[in-house]
Design a protein that fits this description.
The chain is α/β, with parallel strands linked by helices and about 230 residues long. It contains 7 helices and 7 strands; from the N terminus they run H-E-H-E-E-H-E-H-E-E-E-H-H-H. The chain has one domain (about 5-220): Domain of unknown function DUF4159 (Rossmann fold, 3-Layer(aba) Sandwich), CATH 3.40.50.12140.
Length: about 230
């Protein structure tokens, strides 16, 4: 990708990410990531609309209520300060998609990945293509992403049980900035879904939505100091 294009993309993101959730007159969109490999990128269809509704009601944000869908290799990535990714299975990024996603993240973008159970081995492999030489690191409980409007002193809430493991939040950093947040053994997106889908208790759904709102707040208020 040409240097001039990278500069243009960086300037665009600097504008988007400094909007701040308090500027209610500005509407931004967030997007769901469509990827190849056979994994069900489209799972949890009510998750993002419900999360956006919750954030707009409780954070004073003005996010477009209809999330977009964007492909990994598309220039449209750069229209969205926050992209959500989920699924149960395989993920494969082509060389072009790796370059596009890397440039998006290095230019100010943010990717939240939620393992819907069964994605872990595949997404770890593909992220090594995006940031060679980096390993996902566990995000400590004192990181600001857990302490926005809602405090999560013990990190991620546990929404669904699978293997009896504690939920863990992992991250990748670029220039000391958290650019990928990976929620594992948590099923955060399931907790965002409408009650009729999983029939989770309301207190569990609220915890999931609050943590999701923290992610949105964290991304839209980048001036807060990140800690690793």
């Amino acid at each position: 990708m040409k240097f001039k294009l990278k500069i243009v993309l960086f300037i665009a993101f600097a504008f988007l990410c400094n909007l701040g959730i308090s500027q209610s007159e500005t509407t931004v969109k967030i997007a769901l990531l469509k990827y190849k490999g056979g994994g069900d990128w489209y799972s949890n269809p009510t998750s993002l609309p419900n999360l956006i509704e919750f954030a707009n009601a409780n954070l004073g944000s003005n996010i477009n209520p209809v999330p977009a869908t964007v492909e990994v290799g598309s220039f449209d990535l750069f229209n969205y300060p926050l992209i959500h990714m989920t699924g149960h299975g395989n993920v494969v990024f082509s060389d072009n998609e790796v370059e596009m996603l890397q440039t998006y993240l290095m230019s100010g973008g943010f990717l939240h990945i939620d393992d819907n159970y069964g994605m872990d081995q595949y997404i770890r492999r593909e992220l090594k293509k995006v940031f060679p030489g980096q390993e996902l690191v566990e995000i400590p409980f004192n990181n600001p992403i857990y302490h926005q409007k809602y405090d999560f002193e013990k990190g991620l809430p546990k929404i669904h049980e699978h293997d009896g493991k504690a939920p863990q939040g992992y991250g990748l950093f670029y220039d000391e900035r958290l650019v990928v947040f990976y929620t594992y053994e948590c099923d955060l997106g399931d907790g965002w879904e409408s009650y009729a889908v999983h029939k989770d208790p309301e207190q569990i759904r609220q915890k999931a939505l609050q943590m999701g709102a923290n992610i949105i707040s964290f991304v839209f208020n980048r001036e807060q100091k990140e800690e690793i």
